[in-house]
Batch of 4 targets.
Target 1
Amino acid sequence: MRSLRIDIVSDVVCPWCIIGYKSLQAALKLLSNEIQAQIHWHPFELNPTMPQGGENLRDHLTRKYGTTREASIEARNKLTQLGAEVGFDFNFFEEMRIYNTRKAHQMLMWANQHHKQNELELALFEAYFCHEKPIDNESVLIQIAVDIGLDKAQCVQVLSDESWAKAVANTEQQWLQAGIHAVPAIIIEQKHLISGAQTTENLVNTLRSIAHKAISTH
């Protein structure tokens, strides 16, 4: 059994990030007799200057990328199909909004200290993509955290403490300086970079190859 450290740089409003993770999860399940993974999530904000309340997702994509309505519909259909293939149910809707995720990342960084980071990450993806939750809203974030067993009073403190916001910003800056400019970015053993959402088959082959090389060099 080979132990691998897997770092994932991601944002909770990035559909490709949850697709990529679900593919990774499936790959690790197939390799459960060969590899044991320690997963660590790291912050990346797609829209760090987004104001409270967010922006209509379709309007946002038009403004940022020039995406047409037809292209938006096609993209949502494709994402929904890819999500279904890896076991994630996207619920795109007409008035869907995109949000600032700084506070969500503060929570995730804190949850790591309580061994609840992976659970919170998945709960945030589901809240946003499946249940139409405004994940820049503190009450919503606190409820999500409490639902997975985190302490409410500590949640409130983390969300209001500027040092947590600075810690997120500093971590993001470190990843940018390391050359990570798009997500998901999956880093295996702190040296093998996998960019974008990969298929489960590709991930199985890559992980197996890295694990075997690691064993042969020991």
Note: The radius of gyration is 18 Å.
Target 2
Amino acid sequence: MAPDRRLMARDGARPSYDPAGPDRALRAALQDLRTGRWMAMRTLLADTADRWQWTQRTQVLAAAAAGSDVVRAWLAEEPDSAHALVMHARVAVERALRAQRERHLRTHELWIEAWDAAQAATRAAPHDAVPWVCLVALAQLDPEQRWEEHRAVAPEPLLPPGPWGLLAEAHKRDPFNREAHHRMLQFLYARRGTGRLAEAAGYAQWAAGQAPAGSALHVLPLYVRVERYRRESGHDAALDLHWVAEEAAREARRALHSWFEHTHRGERSLLDLNHVAHALWGSLQFPDAARVFDAIGPYVTPTPWMYRAPGRDRAVEVFLQARDRCRAARS
């Protein structure tokens, strides 16, 4: 049986959404966390050596822990634990961002609590980029850029002022940190004034241009393109035209050749894989898209597929149609 046929058989008929993706250790820690226990999380983080995996795991764990007091319980038991303090900051930031999305009355209060927690984490874990990523994430709660640290001069004249100093601190500790740059994009989307998508597109191109081969920053322009469609499109035909443009096809090829082909399965973000597969399929580069679908395996992320057809179930249907079309073209 050919390699792609084996992968197709293992994928199953219908992919599933799992925030842990193929990370089995993370999945086990999440299951433990959801029952109110924190020891598996503690052990997992103690065993996490790679910086990219540390950032990803703390982010996923925080999203799961934000609705409970499990991290607070850990911190109460081990108040001097740097890992517990970083997770406390992660959870506080997640809560503040959710409050902002839901227009909660306590948003400002939660923002200040999260800022204090992130500052404490920078002192407890001085070599960790995650507390600085947390501070970059909080910048989107200041769209008018009233805080001085959110209106620093950009390193490139054509880029707008923003939390560049915070981003630089994250970069010192983990160069080209994927999440730090995605948080910067979110800040640019939220920033007051005109031309926000144009600024975000310019930023994504600049960041990708600075990044070495294998960096996930080469996928950033695809996220901006999806965001533009989400805001401006009205029907499926518009999306098809949006992706077959030469610039879109070029961005998809760049992500494939500069990122996908220089990385292995374990270090790729599932969300990045879905965005690259979507872009290659949308720009009619079916055989290349099939390679990325094989790497995705039995998992799917709601975005960007849900912008073709709102709702998680319909998004999966679009994913399956795209995967089948690309694999058929390869065969």
Note: Confidence is low (pLDDT under 50) at residues 1-10.
Target 3
Amino acid sequence: MMKLDGVVAFVTTAEAGSISMAAKRLGLAKSVVSERLAELERTLGATLMQRSTRKLSLTNSGQTFLPRAQRILREAEEAASELAARSGKLAGPLRISAPVGFGILHLGPALGRFLRDYPDIELSLELDDSFVDAATGGFDAVLRHGAIGDGRLIARRLASSRRLLVASPGYLAEHGSPASLAELEHHRGILYSNRASDWRFADGTGWSVIRPKAGLRVNSGLVMRDAAISGLGIALLPSFFIYEAIAAGQLIEIGIGLQAEGAELFLTYPKDHGASAKIRAFAESLRRSFGYPPYWERAMAPHSQP
């Protein structure tokens, strides 16, 4: 009989790309994962993976079996979640991915609240600023800010956040404060390298787009914030990164008469997975922790430009 722990080992290894990474995600010894894979192959009478010292790849049998194995695990997990929800108790693993900066600044207290309410959930959080595919990345759900634009996904809105143009008092004293898009284009920009370097602003009829000169490109919102505080240029950042720096006078919001494209926060998961009771509970817990409007927007109110 095929054992579920062997299916878990196979799916995790296929999604992680190596037995070592799969063992790390599962919290098991590498030898245990290898043995479970070998037992699954013996049970199925087929080789699912080709192993070498350099890489691991799926055989034709493995490629055929993988989507079915993923479906088996999803259905088993969803069935367990439904039963737990009916009994008023949620339990078992929940694997979430989130951006690094937002996770560092805002997820610690929120996760504490969630796990106090649901102590039997085994939560695993991975912080990653690169694009994480919520449909194929091996996570139950992925937290994102900004547009989703992926028909394979369902997105549960968690909170809103504005994107604001900011710079240090020293930078603005030396270079002046731009009052229009035309003036803004002549300033040094601190740009996020994991998305298009365009800055988009609503102009009443659509979007106005500018491409500022890059003084710095970096794939971290926290580094962008700190670079702006240091006076390296103007940054366009979500309010959840900068609300404290604005309140402390380290950064000043720049008003050019146009609203920048926002940064809505979503919890996304694949349509074909369905929303398990755990995902629904996690999303609702985050909403309660962030508040409406979220606490970073409430803190910004006295300091916002008219």
Note: The chain is about 40% helix and 25% strand.
Target 4
Amino acid sequence: MTLVVFLLVPRLHLLDLAGPAQAFSTAADLGHGYELRYVAEHEEVPTAQGVPLRASVQWPALTADDLVIVPGWRGRFAAHARLSKATRAALVAHHASGGTVASVCAGAYALAQAGLLDGRRSTTHHALQDELAARYPATRVQRDVLYVVDDRVVTSAGIASGIDLALHLIAVRHGAADAAKVAREMVVYARRNGDEPQRSAMLRHRGHLSDTVHRAQDLIDARFADRLPLAEIAAACDVSPRTLTRLFSAATGMTPLRYQQTLRLERAENLIAHGSTVDAAARSTGFDDARMLRRLRSRLP
């Protein structure tokens, strides 16, 4: 059982908490072993939207597989969220033991207080990026991205980006297909526009209305590491290969084969970022050999 521990700060935004909490709860409903816990420095936590929450003041025992997430709050960084020495130490200890810590929106300030952003890349809500950079010059603030991953420290932008963060963490642990199932249950296929290189490909190309293409993507998402002839995908969608290619290209801007290759490459990048060798990542994601994976990685911006 993996614990997902949310550290609640006064005046937190409900969606900063509810978005990732729903994602991990849905993943648990789909058969993954997640248990959600809530901790705070005081049992009652006021929220920005006026609904009080209750949390434990005792941290559970954590392992390296567990996650700690800090939702953001209303107000500037310095307001409402000066963490105690014990809370900062708990964040540091979890990361030092091999665990992952994450933040949504202003929650980056909590990680910065604990020193976890020193020397690491980070992001936060666009309205707070200048303040984060000024208060904590040791962190390298990345602008105009949904989330940033740096050595098991994951920071995300404003409010709803916490869902993107949670889906990324689920994809890293269980693969793109399972994260896509969670996203579909939450009805969050449509993503924001703009240059967001950290977005998952399984979500980036789901903002369309073609049921046929969604069915094709469901099959590719679930079996992206397998050999999937175009004819097999088309048959599963009750259309001809030519029609599928036309519909798929119109909806996503790429062919089914290119989409599958994109999923493979993204999953391989996740594996490599978490310590896998290129050869092992290539085998796990369905590449015939590591040379193809290396060539594709060399073309990445």
Note: The beta strands are 2-8, 34-40, 44-45, 53-54, 67-70, 100-104, 121-122, 140-141, 147-150, 153-156.
